[in-house]
Write a structure and sequence with these properties.
Elements lengths: L2 E8 L3 E9 L5 E10 L10 H15 L8 E4 L5 E9 L1 E6 L15 E9 L11 E6 L5 H13 L3 E7 L4 H7 L6 E2 L13 E6 L12 H8 L3 H14 L4 E6 L4 E6 L4 E6 L3 E5 L4 H10 L3 E6 L4 H17 L7 E15 L8 E14 L3 H14 L3 E3 L3 H9 L9 E6 L3 E7 L5 E7 L2 H12 L4 H9 L1 E5 L4 E4 L4 E3 L12 E5 L2 E4 L6 H27 L10 E5 L8 H10 L4 E4 L11 H15 L1
Parallel strand pairs: 1-4, 4-19, 7-8, 8-9, 9-10, 20-28, 28-29
Antiparallel strand pairs: 1-2, 2-3, 5-18, 6-13, 7-11, 11-12, 14-15, 14-16, 17-18, 20-21, 21-22, 23-24, 23-26, 24-25, 26-27
Helix pairs in contact: 2-3, 4-5, 9-14, 10-11, 10-12, 12-13
Protein name: Diol dehydratase reactivase subunit alpha
InterPro entries: ATPase_NBD, DDR_dom, DDR_swiveling, DDRA, DDRA_swiveling_dom_sf, NA-bd_OB-fold
C-alpha cells in the first residue's frame, strides 16, 4: 500500500518540503518539492503556516491532499535564530550654526562664490563694495527671485552665489544675468546666520567640488589658523564626491568627528573570558572570538550601543520562545567593517556622511523544546503525525549526496538568509557540523547601508541581479561591458539610469551611484560576509582544522543560487586546492531542498533499513 511522507526544512527566509511516495517495501516511487516563505521567526510556533503552505505546494504536484500524508519529519533546526545590527563607530557633529556639504539633485549655475550672507529682500540697501551670497526663502517664486537679483546686479550689487530653500536652483540660475553657483533644497535656511562669510561651490556636470572638499582650500577661503584647519578636515571629508557644497563660518561654529562609545563585546569561553572594544574594528572582534575556543555566550558592556543590541536580541528571543532571558545564549557572532550613511548631527539641509561602522550578526541558540512544540502544532492543525528529524547540517549533507557525482567524504556549505552552516563526514562515520551567524540578510543590510538606499527591497534586488545602464533609448550596457541593442525604444524612465535585470525586465534603481560603484559595493560585501564566513565554517568542520584538509565542497542553500557567489567561492577555495560547485539535489533541485530531502531519506532508512 502506498504511503506519503515529507521532510520539512524551516529556514530563516524559506520553508521547503520534500514529499515522497513510498511503496510497501519502503522504496521511494516519486519525490517532489514544495516551497513557501517562512512565517514568523525560525524555530517558533508561527512557522506552522509556512509549513502547511510548502506542503500544499508539494501535494499539488503529486495530485494528493494534505490529509493523504502519513508522516512529517521536521529539521531539528538547532533552533538557531540570527539577528543583525550596525554599530556606528564615528559620528560627524556640527555645533552652533555651521553647515556642511549639501548635495541637491539639481544645483544651478557653476563655479565658486565667496561672500556675505544676505536676504533677497535686503539687496537694495546692500553695501556695493562687498560680495554677497543671497538667501532665497520659500516666500519667493523663482522668477521673482531672479528679477530682484538682476535688478540688484544692474544697480552695482556684487552677487556671487545664492542659497535657495525650494527646488528652484536651475530655474533661478538660468534667469540670472551672471553665471553664479546656486544651491537649492536647503530646508532650514532660516538657521543660516546673516552677515556670515559663506562659500558656495557648484561643479560642472559629471565633476565634483574641489575647493570645498579640500581642508586647505577651505582654510584659504576663510583665512583659518592651523588649529581651525584641523576642525574643517571633517567638513571636507563629508563633501568628497559632492557636486555642490556650502560652508559657512560663524564665530562659535565648530565641526568635529566624535568617537561613539560603541562599547565592548565580552566573549565567554569554557575556560576564560575575552573582551574587545567594538571600535577596534571587526578583525579584532573576530580574533577575540577565536581565542576563547568553545564559545558559551556573548555579552556587551552595559550602557553602550553593542550592550543594548545584544541584550535586545536575548530579550526578543525570550519573549518569542517563553524562556527566561538569562537562559538564552549567543553561540556565534560575525563582525564586518563597513561604512554607514549617517545623518550629520546639527546640519541644516539633511546632509549625511559616510561613517565608520561595524556590522554585527549574532546567533542565538534556544531549546529543542520549541521545535517539539511546533511539531505538535502542525500535527494538531493538519492531522499529520509530525516528529523531529536529524540535525540540520547532517541532513543537508545527506541530501547533498543525491547530487550526481558525489560520494563520501563530503563537505557541504549551506548559505541561507540568517546563517551559514557547514558539515563534513567521511566513510568511517566521522562527522562535524557548525552553524555560524551571518548570511544573505546581512549582505542586504550592508548594501542598503553603504549605498544609502531607502529600502531593503532595493538592496535585495542589487544583491540578486545583474546591473545594466540605458545609454540610449535603443541599447543598454551590462556591468560586464557587453551591449544589447533593441528594435523598439526603451521606456524614457530608463534613460541614463542604472537598472537591475530581473527575468529579462529592466527595473531602474532609485540611487545616484554609478553602475561601477554599485557593483563594487555588492561584490565587496559578498566577499566580506559570504565568502569569508564560508571559509570560517569550513575550517571549523575540517578534520585538520585547516582548509588544506579538504578536497571538494558542495554549495547548498538559497544564497548559492546567487548569480556570482558560486564563482567567487570557487575562486577563493581553488587557492587551497579545493574543488567547489553548486549542488544539484536529486539531480533536479539545484542547491535547494537538501535538508528536506535528507530528512525524508534519513527517516525512511531508519524505518526500513
Amino acid at each position: 500500500m502506498k504511503r506519503y511522507a515529507a521532510g520539512i526544512d524551516v529556514g530563516n527566509a524559506t520553508t521547503e518540503a520534500a514529499l515522497g511516495c513510498v511503496d510497501e517495501n519502503g522504496l521511494l516511487q516519486a519525490v517532489v518539492s514544495g516551497i513557501s516563505g517562512t512565517t514568523g521567526l525560525k524555530g517558533t510556533k508561527e512557522n506552522k503556516r509556512g509549513i502547511l503552505h510548502a506542503l500544499s505546494d508539494a501535494c499539488s504536484k503529486l495530485g494528493i491532499c494534505l490529509k493523504d500524508i502519513n508522516a512529517l519529519y521536521l529539521n531539528e533546526a538547532t533552533p538557531v535564530i540570527g539577528d543583525f545590527a550596525m554599530e556606528t563607530i564615528t559620528e560627524t557633529i556640527i555645533t552652533e550654526s555651521t553647515m556642511i556639504g549639501h548635495n541637491p539633485d539639481t544645483p544651478g549655475g557653476l563655479g565658486l562664490g565667496v561672500g556675505i550672507s544676505i536676504r533677497l529682500e535686503e539687496l537694495p540697501g546692500a553695501d556695493r563694495t562687498k560680495n554677497y551670497i543671497v538667501l532665497v526663502d520659500d516666500g519667493f517664486s523663482f522668477d521673482e527671485a531672479a528679477l530682484q537679483m538682476n535688478q540688484a546686479l544692474e544697480q552695482g550689487c556684487k552677487i556671487v552665489g545664492a542659497i535657495v530653500q525650494k527646488d528652484d536652483g536651475v530655474l533661478i540660475a538660468n534667469r540670472v544675468k551672471n553665471i553664479i553657483p546656486v544651491i537649492d533644497e536647503v530646508r532650514l535656511i532660516e538657521n543660516i546666520p546673516l552677515g556670515a562669510l559663506c562659500a558656495v561651490e557648484v561643479a560642472a556636470k559629471g565633476a565634483t567640488v574641489e575647493r570645498l572638499s579640500n581642508p586647505y582650500g577651505i582654510a584659504g577661503i576663510f583665512s583659518l589658523s592651523p588649529e581651525e584647519t584641523e576642525h574643517v578636515i571633517f567638513v571636507a571629508k563629508a563633501l568628497i564626491g559632492s557636486r555642490s557644497a556650502v560652508v559657512l563660518k560663524t564665530p562659535k561654529g565648530q565641526v568635529e568627528e566624535r568617537i561613539i562609545p560603541a562599547g565592548e563585546i565580552i566573549f565567554c569561553g569554557e575556560h576564560y573570558e575575552k573582551s574587545v572594544a567594538v571600535d577596534a574594528g571587526a578583525e579584532a572582534v573576530m580574533e577575540a572570538q577565536e581565542k576563547v575556543g568553545v564559545l558559551l555566550d556573548v555579552k556587551g558592556s552595559a550602557g553602550t550601543n553593542v550592550g543594548g543590541m545584544l541584550s535586545s536580541i536575548k530579550a526578543t528571543m525570550a519573549q518569542i520562545t517563553g524562556q527566561q532571558q538569562d537562559t538564552i545564549r549567543i553561540q556565534d557572532i560575525l563582525a564586518v567593517d563597513t561604512m554607514a550613511s549617517q545623518s550629520v548631527a546639527g546640519a541644516m539641509a539633511g546632509e549625511y556622511t559616510m561613517e565608520h561602522s561595524v556590522a554585527i550578526a549574532a546567533m542565538v541558540k534556544t531549546h529543542k523544546l520549541n521545535m517539539e512544540q511546533l511539531a505538535s502544532e502542525v500535527t494538531e492543525a493538519a492531522g499529520i503525525p509530525a516528529s523531529i528529524g536529524g540535525v540540520e547540517g547532517d541532513m543537508a549533507a545527506r541530501g547533498a549526496l543525491t547530487t550526481p557525482g558525489t560520494d563520501t567524504p563530503i563537505c557541504i556549505v549551506d548559505i541561507g538568509a540568517g546563517s551559514t552552516d557547514a558539515c563534513y563526514f567521511d566513510k568511517d562515520g566521522y562527522k562535524r557540523t557548525v552553524h555560524l551567524a551571518g548570511a544573505g540578510d546581512m549582505v542586504s543590510a550592508m548594501i542598503c547601508s553603504e549605498l544609502g538606499l531607502d529600502s531593503i527591497e532595493e538592496a535585495e534586488n542589487i544583491k540578486k541581479y545583474r546591473l545594466a545602464k540605458a545609454e540610449s533609448l535603443f541599447y543598454i550596457r551590462y556591468e560586464d561591458g557587453s551591449v544589447e541593442f533593441f528594435q523598439k525604444p526603451l521606456e524614457s524612465r530608463l534613460f541614463a539610469r542604472v537598472a537591475i535585470v530581473r527575468d529579462g525586465e529592466l527595473i531602474p534603481l532609485e540611487t545616484r551611484h554609478s553602475m561601477e560603484r554599485i557593483r563594487q559595493v555588492r561584490r565587496e560585501v559578498k566577499q566580506k560576509v559570504l565568502v569569508e564566513n564560508a571559509l570560517r565554517a569550513l575550517k571549523k568542520v575540517s578534520p585538520t582544522g585547516r582548509l588544506y584538509g579538504l578536497s571538494h565542497v558542495v554549495l547548498l542553500g538559497g544564497s548559492s543560487l546567487d548569480f556570482e557567489l558560486a564563482n567567487m567561492l570557487t575562486e577563493a577555495l581553488s587557492h587551497y586546492g579545493i574543488t567547489a560547485g553548486k549542488g544539484d539535489v536529486r539531480g533536479c533541485e539545484g542547491p535547494r531542498n537538501a535538508v528536506a530531502t535528507g530528512l525524508l531519506l534519513s527517516a525512511l532508512e531508519e524505518e526500513h533499513g
